[in-house]
Please model this.
Amino acid sequence: MARKRRPEDLSEAELRRLLVQKRRAARKDRLEAYQHSGRLVQVAPSEGAPRLDDFPTGFEGETVDVGESRRKRILDRLLLGAEVLAVIGLAFVIFNGANLLRELNQQVVAALEQATFTPTALIQAVVLPSGHTPPTDPGGAQPNEAEIPEHLRPLVQSLANIPIPTPSPEQAIQVRIPAINVDAPVVLGDGWEQLKKGVGQHIGSANPGEEGNLVLSAHNDVFGELFRRLDELQPGDEITVFSNLRAYTYVVTETQIVAPTFVQVMDPTPDPTITLISCYPYLVNSQRIVVRGVLLDS
Model:
């Protein structure tokens, strides 16, 4: 009688063969049970028809369930489709997120950007500077409020109280006009008190040599009569203006007589120009004399 062998004494091939035999016996028992219960109908195989043992096996002795394999393929395809849809959805979300982030950045930049405004003069002249009553009047020389439109007089009075800014090194400090023997200091501002000290540079006008309109004014019959002879200037006469940095020479181009309210002569210009203003005629002061010049090329 052969000795009974223990499982650990069997080789791998013997264990595999034993396992296959057990599976086949179990499958046979199930088929017989199905036949006895009527759940399985025995059909005679036709010639050449494949047998169960002919189907592919997963490993030696194990038959693959065809239905289960089909369901698995369908499930794999469904999972693949779901993964593809998930990837497409993720790409869509990333694309939309990038667009949203770009729009938000643009909105932030637009919110942070400040509009560039064109600077405007803080003080708009109502009448040309240097206006006053003649010194021969009973009240003597004083600011001539009659020149100012009545509804604008409160504005002019309020502007008179605005403090004079601190002069810069580029501001005019001296003016020389050899043709009429003028050599006078220049102060910043052209109000009544400033013109007592010399020639006044209009606040907001260009500095010597700069692009724009350098506006200088002085009296013709009081406080030194600095601009009494402006009407004698001719085209080509030179006007030299000094700053703390250097001197600039302008050449007279024209002279005109205007009403005190003709403030357009003080407007900025695209090129370096100079405008000299004083009352006119002498000891009458009902109008203004305006002398224009352009900067002489270096």
User: Anything to note?
Assistant: The chain is about 25% helix and 20% strand. Residues 57-64, 117-122 have pLDDT under 50 and may be disordered.
